[in-house]
Design brief:
The structure is a single chain. The chain has six helices and five strands, in the order E-H-H-E-H-H-E-H-H-E-E. A five-stranded parallel β-sheet has the order 3-2-1-4-5. Helix 1 packs across helix 2, helix 3 runs antiparallel to helix 4 and helix 5 crosses helix 6. It is 51% helix and 14% strand. By secondary structure, it is an alpha/beta fold. The chain has one domain: Rossmann fold (3-Layer(aba) Sandwich), CATH 3.40.50.1010.
Length: 125
């Protein structure tokens, strides 16, 4: 199972240069995809700030029925502090790392802040 990082969804929603590759990845892996609650909320914050809440509604309606929503249990929040110490992550990267570690997911991302990570599986798009 893949934990899809926020940047992959935003690439498509904002029609950024790598959107086609991101869309192909998602379409080819339906049934094997997760999104964290943090990503779900972050996407909403970004789209509302850009004054395109209709894109968030379309995302919720089109994408969310096809992927699993995952969260970090409170008992596993200690991973966040491990990631900060070991990799000096910002909170957003640390949360994604922690969810992937806690739930044994492969983190699919475009974010090269994850380059030094060796204790979970990271795949770059």
């Amino acid at each position: 199972m893949y934990l899809v990082d926020t940047n992959i969804f935003l690439e498509i929603l904002l029609n950024d240069p790598n959107s086609q590759a991101c869309e192909t990845f998602l379409n080819n892996n339906i049934g094997n995809l997760c999104i964290s609650d943090f990503s779900l909320h972050s996407i909403g914050v970004i789209l509302f700030r850009r004054n395109i809440p209709s894109s968030y509604k379309r995302f919720i309606d089109d994408v969310m029925p096809k992927i699993l929503l995952v969260t970090l249990p409170i008992a596993s929040y200690s991973y966040i502090f491990q990631g900060k110490t070991k990799y000096n992550f910002d909170f957003d990267d640390d949360y994604q790392y922690s969810v992937a570690k806690d739930q044994g997911l492969v983190l699919k991302t475009q974010d090269h802040h994850f380059d030094p990570v060796t204790d979970i599986q990271i795949e770059f798009l």
